[in-house]
């Protein structure tokens, strides 16, 4: 009886060591799958406030500004007017803005969007699949994606009008 108990303890210890080694190795090597500048942008398939399911393929060939935000996030709320101003400025120059709301219900997001006057597409990531795919933490986080689908810049934190304009100008010049 004591021998089988010891065998079980050894097996559990070995399992813990293997899992711990795997966790440390993936953490140190950075193979967590989080996209970085120069990588192809992850795809998305999300419900829009318009009631339609939208995919990243709809915007193929366009430069994109993808902003992850929430109404509960004060910096997200503060930067929304700047995003809308830049969306208006760049819409005729092939730059597509997409707002991806993280985890909130449609009514909350819809009320906020109407109150602030946001007209660019807003998608709902209730299950946080895109948050996982894009490796979002913290918010707001904005991805600037070239017309070839490559991530040009990732900006973590609140954007102001000038920084946003400079990033988009640079994005629009990319081949």
UniProtKB/TrEMBL annotation:
- What does the record give under GO molecular function? oxidoreductase activity
Keyword set for this entry? Cytochrome c-type biogenesis, Disulfide bond, Redox-active center, Signal-anchor, Transmembrane
Lineage, top-rank taxon, reads: Bacteria
Stretches of the chain forming a coiled coil according to its record: none
Please state where this protein is localized: Cell envelope
Do the record's keywords include DNA repair?
Answer: no
- A cellular component annotation (GO) from this entry: cell envelope
Per the record, the GO terms for biological process are: cytochrome complex assembly
Principal subcellular localisation of the protein:
other
Thioredoxin domain sequence ranges: 35-173
Which PANTHER family did the record assign? THIOL:DISULFIDE INTERCHANGE PROTEIN DSBE
**Protein name (record):** Alkyl hydroperoxide reductase
State the organism named in the record.
Paenibacillus amylolyticus
């Amino acid at each position: 009886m004591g021998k089988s108990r010891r065998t079980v303890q050894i097996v559990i210890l070995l399992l813990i060591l293997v899992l711990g080694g795997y966790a440390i190795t993936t953490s140190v090597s950075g193979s967590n799958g989080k996209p970085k500048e120069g990588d192809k942008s992850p795809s998305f398939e999300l419900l829009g406030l318009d009631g339609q399911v939208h995919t990243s393929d709809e915007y193929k060939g366009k430069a994109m500004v993808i902003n992850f935000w929430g109404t509960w996030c004060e910096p997200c709320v503060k930067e929304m007017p700047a995003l809308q101003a830049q969306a208006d400025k760049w819409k005729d120059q092939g730059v597509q803005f997409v707002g991806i709301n993280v985890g909130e219900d449609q009514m909350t997001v819809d009320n906020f969007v109407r109150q602030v006057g946001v007209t660019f597409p807003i998608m709902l990531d209730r299950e946080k699949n895109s948050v996982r795919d894009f490796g979002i933490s913290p918010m707001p986080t904005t991805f600037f994606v070239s017309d070839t689908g490559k991530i040009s810049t990732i900006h973590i934190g609140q954007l102001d009008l000038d920084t946003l304009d400079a990033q988009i100008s640079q994005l629009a010049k990319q081949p």
